[in-house]
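seq as requested:
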Amino acid sequence: MKRLVLAWAVTAVAATAAAVAVLGLLGGGLTGTSSRVLSQAEIRAALATATATTRPPVARPTGTPTAPATPGDGGLVRTEGGSVIAACDGDQVTLRSWTPAQGYSVDAVEPGPGREARVEFDPDEGDDVKLRIHCSAGRPVTLRH
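struct tokens:
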């Protein structure tokens, strides 16, 4: 009986090892994905390609107001540096949330409430995206600087 169990165990180990070897030779591995680690340059290139194909181009005016947020969107402002949700109470603005885009971090925030709120998104490379937000007619308006 011990010989039968031992023979079964050896056969199972040999079959498993053969299957792993064949999958490795086929390049798929056990998970079906490549095990090669991408470099930072390859990751940035892939993200740039994906971003360029999934996002419409963003206009980059300087020091000019963007269109006010539309009713019902909670004062959402989107830029290449990230997104901000602002709310107005009279002439006082408050940043409800701010989220950097991929490749950016939040460098500075003045969330209000006040006559003006500010947020600065800092990219890994390139120019900062600085936003000043104030209220006009009870709605958030964003100035880039």
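The chain has two domains: 2-54, 76-144.
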